[in-house]
Design goal:
The complex is a heterodimer of chains A (246) and B (458). Chain A is α/β, with parallel strands linked by helices. Chain A contains 13 helices and eight strands. In chain A, the strands form two sheets. A four-stranded parallel β-sheet of chain A has the order 2-1-3-4, sandwiched between helices. Chain A has a four-stranded parallel β-sheet with strand order 6-5-7-8. In chain A, β7, α12 and β8 form a beta-alpha-beta unit. Chain A is globular and about 50 Å long. Classes of the chains: A alpha/beta (246), B alpha/beta (458).
Chain lengths: 246, 458
């Protein structure tokens, strides 16, 4: 099983620690994983702004970088959702369609493909789990509060394997943080208010860290926490799952 | 209210100047979302009900012409006069002509979002007809000369003190009295007189049954019934998508409607109007106003399944924090944002962008409209039609150019990190909307790609 590591552009540039943790975690679990160097971006920033017609270049790059792999794994639900819904190819649509089905968000790859039962990780802290909408409602990483259906959560299932970690409850457990791609600047007032409210929910429940399977939400909430001078940090779920016991 | 020149982001920005009000608005609507959750979790078959409703509506949309004609024939044989209106102007002209023919200058109207969409009140008032809205929330926004901010809860943006002040001005209640029970009783007395003296009543239509030619009007206040039962002429306005094939289908829709809307098991009044009583005239106006165009848009046709419950508004984190008026359309929130561009793509080009695409609207929708996917699709259509600022277009083209090339991407990434590190004030300033209330991410020593080059693969 050869796995291609897909690291979204903003994670590559601003959050390399999360990408390194993802790589190390997969290696630790015995996965044959490598990082194709010519990757850039999934194209979502353009597509969600109404410019999907400009994403052909990103699509072609994605396909040429990843077509040879059995699976593609990425530590961002949002980028994975975009690929799964919108990866096309002018020359070879069958290739695009087959690749879409082989792309996995990190936590679902761990629970559904690797079927991880133990991690050997420890993180003795109070942690709040932010359910990123694209991962949750798009990829169904967790059950959604709107539906009358059985509860489950792939990120929570993994966090429960981490020694010492105390998962804190939230008042609104799957409300959007307000990042929303270009929404965060185009609708600055509402975006910020949504982020402040989300952060406040975590703070009310006394968390030390806010974690998520999506860094875009965390980047937004981190920006608000820093501005407020808060001592609460954001941390990508891969960094918690990759934490060691010593 | 002059909101024509401002877009959703600006209007939402204005709304957010009063943070206490935003919190109050958010919590009020979230409370209704929670009531909805409690109600729907009592029904293990909830998701099956949604699916059934969705399929019934899909059938209706695929056979709309047949069901409409079946309804028309059955309604006519019941003694209801059926009118067809291609657009808002025709609808308003039909209502006006009916009133004029009977020498009526005053009309009572229960809640009808269609008449808001058609701007009926303005048209009638310009022609010397007085209209009194009998739904309490609608009456309040009418007194305030505002649009409803929510399709089920028209005055949800108003605090009780503001309503007390409006009643003091218009209904002579004591200044400073904001007791909800007192204000409601005042409105009841005032409306009772209206019901007794109006010769014409207009109602909306929640469901029109093709099989029987009857229509169903759902209210909690009984105001539609009070109006229609006392008036000599009952006019019902309905969008052509309100048809359901058979009476038994109400067993699905009535269970979904109010649980989704307010968390009640059913509306207090679900009244069936089958035929006019002795001496009464009953008219129904079937209005297209863009619906057949929407029906022809493959990606957007199923927005016509909407039963106007408002659940998508109550759950929408953007709606709750921007207020209904920020959508500058009769129907606000996520559903309004996918309906409005069909009528005027340029005027409502901003609305599909007033969303984070979180998808909660789609999950609460009782008829399973893929609202957030349609928001995404409207964005593509609006950009293709050119209704997008030139600066945005240029920045998107530049971004696509950089991201299509690994070389340019690596250079741009390096340059951005370099700039943020050495001259942070180049990005940390008030020209950057991110920076107004959020810090920028800390710049790392190296990108992941650079780290990988040094630590793996070599």
């Amino acid at each position: 099983m050869r796995v291609g590591l897909f690291i979204p552009c903003y994670v590559d540039q601003f959050y390399p620690a999360a990408a390194i943790a993802t790589l190390q975690l997969l290696e630790k679990l015995g996965v044959d994983v490598s990082y194709p160097k010519n990757q850039t971006c999934c194209g979502q920033p353009m597509a969600n702004s109404g410019f999907e017609h400009l994403t052909g270049g990103c699509n072609n790059l994605f396909i040429s970088n990843f077509k040879a792999f059995d699976y593609v794994v990425c530590p961002s639900g949002s980028c994975v959702l975009h690929i799964k819904h919108h990866l096309h190819s002018l020359g070879n649509e069958d290739e695009a369609v087959s690749l879409r089905d082989r792309v996995y968000e990190l936590t679902e790859f761990l629970t559904d493909i690797l079927k991880v039962k133990k991690l050997g990780a420890a993180f003795p802290h109070k942690v709040g789990l932010h359910q990123s909408c694209h991962g949750q409602r798009g990829l169904h990483l967790s059950q959604m509060t709107e539906l009358v259906a059985d509860d489950f959560s792939k990120p929570r299932q993994l966090l429960n394997m981490v020694e010492g970690l105390e998962l804190m409850p939230l008042d609104r457990k799957d409300e959007c943080c307000g990042f929303g791609g270009t929404f965060c600047v185009a609708e600055e007032a509402v975006s910020v208010k949504m982020g402040q409210d989300r952060v406040a929910d975590h703070l009310r429940h006394d968390v030390e860290y806010i974690t998520s399977a999506d860094l875009s939400c965390l980047m937004h909430m981190e920006g608000i926490l820093h501005r407020q001078g808060s001592r609460v940090s954001v941390i990508h779920i891969a960094e918690i799952l990759n934490s060691s016991k010593n | 209210m002059n909101t024509a020149t401002k877009d959703h982001a600006e209007l939402a920005g204005d709304f957010n100047k009063d943070i206490d009000r935003v919190d109050w608005h958010d919590e009020t609507l979230w409370w209704i979302r929670q009531k909805r959750d409690i109600a729907v979790h009592k029904l293990p078959e909830w998701e099956l009900l949604r699916e059934t409703a969705s399929q019934i509506k899909n059938n209706v949309l695929s056979n709309l012409n047949n069901y409409l004609q079946q309804f028309e024939a059955n309604a006519q044989s019941n003694g209801i006069v059926v009118h067809w209106a291609a657009d808002a102007q025709e609808h308003n002209a039909i209502v006006l002509a009916l009133l004029k023919k009977n020498g009526i200058t005053q009309m009572v109207k229960s809640k009808s979002m269609l008449t808001e969409e058609c701007h009926l009140n303005e048209h009638l008032e310009a022609n010397g007809i007085g209209v009194i809205d009998s739904d309490l929330g609608e009456r309040i926004v009418q007194l305030a000369k505002e649009m409803p901010s929510h399709i089920v809860l028209p005055c949800i943006h108003k605090k009780k003190e503001e309503i007390g002040e409006l009643f003091h001005i218009h209904l002579n209640t004591p200044k400073g009295n904001a007791d909800p029970q007192f204000l409601t009783e005042t409105a009841r007395q005032h409306l009772r007189d209206t019901f007794l003296t109006r010769k014409a009543a207009l109602t909306g239509v929640n469901f029109a049954v093709a099989e029987t030619g009857e229509f169903v009007v759902c209210t909690n206040e009984g105001n539609a019934d009070m109006g229609a039962h006392l008036a000599d002429i009952h006019i019902a306005s309905m969008g052509i998508e309100k048809i359901i094939p058979e009476r038994k289908h109400l067993g699905v829709f009535l269970r979904l409607l109010t649980r989704s809307a307010t968390g009640q098991p059913i509306t207090t009044y679900s009244s069936h109007f089958v035929k006019p009583r002795e001496g009464q005239e009953m008219h129904i106006i079937m209005v297209d106003n863009g619906r057949s165009i929407q029906l022809g848009r493959e990606d957007f046709r199923n927005s016509l399944k909407c039963i106007r419950c408002g659940a998508c508004m109550n759950t929408c984190p953007v709606y709750r924090r921007s207020g209904g008026h920020s959508y500058h359309y009769a129907i606000s929130g996520p559903i309004g944002s996918i309906l409005a561009p069909n009528l005027d793509m340029e005027k409502y080009a901003d609305l599909p962008f007033a969303s984070t695409l979180c998808g909660s609207c789609t999950n609460v929708c009782p008829v399973k409209i893929d609202i957030h996917d349609q928001l995404y699709k409207w964005r593509q259509v609006i950009v293709q039609k050119g209704y997008v600022p030139a600066a945005k277009k240029a920045s998107m083209q530049a971004m696509a150019w950089v991201l299509a090339s690994p070389g340019k991407y690596h250079m741009a990434g390096k340059a951005a990190r370099f700039t943020m590190k050495l001259v942070p004030f180049a990005v940390n300033n008030q020209l950057n909307p991110w920076y107004k209330h959020r810090d920028m991410p800390k710049v790392p020593q190296q990108s992941f790609g650079e780290w990988y080059d040094k630590n793996r693969d070599n």
